[in-house]
Amino acid sequence: MGEAVVGGLTQAGGYPDAERAVCDRARLLALARTGLGPAADPEMDRIADWVRRALGVPTALVSLVQVDRQVFPGMVGLPEPAAAERATPLTHSFCQHVVASAQPLVIRDARAHPLVWDNLAIPDLGVVAYAGVPLTDERGRVLGSLCAIDGRPRDWSDDDLATLHDIARSCSAELRLRLARYDAGIEAGRRDLVEQWQQQVVRELQAAMLTVLPTIDGLSMAARYRPADSRLNVGGDWYDAIALRGARDRDGQAVAVSVGDVIGHDLPAVTLMGQVRWMLRQAAWDHSAGPPTAVFGAFEAANRGIGPGASGTAVVAHMHRPPGAPWVVRWTNAGHPAPLLLRPDGRTELLAEHDALFGFAITDGLTRTDHELVVEPGSTLFLYSDGLVERPGSDIDETTRALVALLDGVRDDGPEAVVTAAMESLPENTHDDVVAFAVHFHADPPG
Predict the structure, then answer these.
(1) Where does the record place the PPM-type phosphatase domain (predicted)?
(2) Are 175 and 251 contained in the same domain?
(3) Which pLDDT score is estimated for 446?
(4) pTM of the entire structure?
């Protein structure tokens, strides 16, 4: 019937030992330690709304499965009376199957699915399409599900599911932080260990949100992220690259890239960064023909209008190679450190033009500027965050000149060597996160 189910969830009548999984004592104790139940929690509500906006669904839930019911500390779009109660009995639960299997559950049309066709959530809550991802504690126990729900059949795309997994990692990290805080209160003597664990969770969360770079004919890319050393001093730096839907034979190839830095530290900055990166991805996809100012303008309007209200710096670039021609790069810079263009003749150009930072009232309605250059084959574009050149007690112009001199020595060794050299130039202890991202334009003519 066109159903898509992940994790082998295809048998009618549920799962063996499903009741034992739901009623597992250790799992229920972990649930209780989170302090979450059928009451609104601001962070959980924010995560549910993040799912709603990112996937374009009417309903999204942070659902924690108890012995006889599921509760929704995070919720958006649920009809009454379930919305007021923030809970339903398990007769109305799809998420119990995620707990029972410890696997994602993806359903195109629940009315035709043998696992849930008779679930009362279909007539009572209007659930038709469902995608749920496990929410786990530090031991891998499934506490519930982060789920997206539609009232009509839906073919969930790979991007939908990747986004849902990314946000679920953020939600699980928040649950684990709450469990860690509970344990720290019980065992005050272990507070230092808990803080170290929290730091690792935040760093792993940020690393999970960083992009797997695409493979693009005619380009080589390399990127590296390094967190700050001080405890929990992890910020909102990111890099990203996606092939655009305009990259067809008749149009040549098109790639959108961005680097940026959301102002702030710790988990709030990391979660804001994840939202900003995905919002810029969506804007780049919707405006695949560019220009970058249209992409960034769409992001800024959404950032102001529906949140998250992030502020920071960014470079957004659109790279296009028409058939039989060199690559053309167009970019706009919102207060970010100037990219470097390493030309094949040994020259290095600082692309210094920039506009103001984003996310501040004073920049509302600002007209941003597109810049353009035709890139010589064999060139390398190097983008980075301010932690690479801003250091306490140092002059930024001097550190930028030192960076240019350093990269001059490795410009012919490929993008991986460029980002490695940049990162190895950092002192052992850094005060800020650092991103280094290099894009090399092949010298071979386009095929």
Answers:
(1) 216-441
(2) no
(3) 41
(4) 0.57
**Strands 434-441 and 380-384, sheet pairing:** antiparallel
Which of these three, 186, 220, 252, is where a domain ends?
A: 186
CATH number at residue 326: 3.60.40.10
Whether the per-residue pLDDT at 219 is higher than 70: the answer is yes
For range 286-309, the mean pLDDT: 91
Q: Could you tell me if 150 and 236 lie in one domain?
A: no
- Kindly state whether residue 119 falls inside one of the protein's structural domains: yes
Q: Does residue 6 lie in a domain region?
A: no
Q: Which of 170, 186, 202 is the last residue of a domain?
A: 186
Average pLDDT (329-347) is 95
Per-residue confidence (pLDDT) for residue 274, from 0 to 100: 85
**Per-residue H/E/C for the chain:** CCCCCCCCCCCCCCCCCHHHHHCCHHHHHHHHHHCCCCCCCHHHHHHHHHHHHHHCCCEEEEEEECCCEEEEEEEECCCCCHHHHCEEEHHHCCHHHHHHHCCCEEECCHHHCCCCCCCCHHHHHCCCEEEEEEEECCCCCEEEEEEEEECCCCCCCHHHHHHHHHHHHHHHHHHHHHHHHHHHHHCHHHHHHHHHHHHHHHHHHHHHHCCCCCCCCCEEEEEEEECCCCCCCCEEEEEEEEECCCCCCCCCEEEEEEEEEEEEEHHHHHHHHHHHHHHHHHHHHHCCCCCHHHHHHHHHHHHHHCCCCCCEEEEEEEEEECCCCCCEEEEEEECCCCCEEECCCCCEEECCCCECCECCHHHCCCCCCCEEEECCCCCEEEEECHHHCCCCCCCHHHHHHHHHHHHHCCHHHCHHHHHHHHHHCCCCCCCCCEEEEEEEECCCCCC
141/236 same-domain check? no
Closest CA to 24 of 96, 122, 116: 96
Residue 128's domain spans which residues? 18-186
Q: What is the per-residue pLDDT for 443?
A: 81
Residue 197 lies in a domain: no
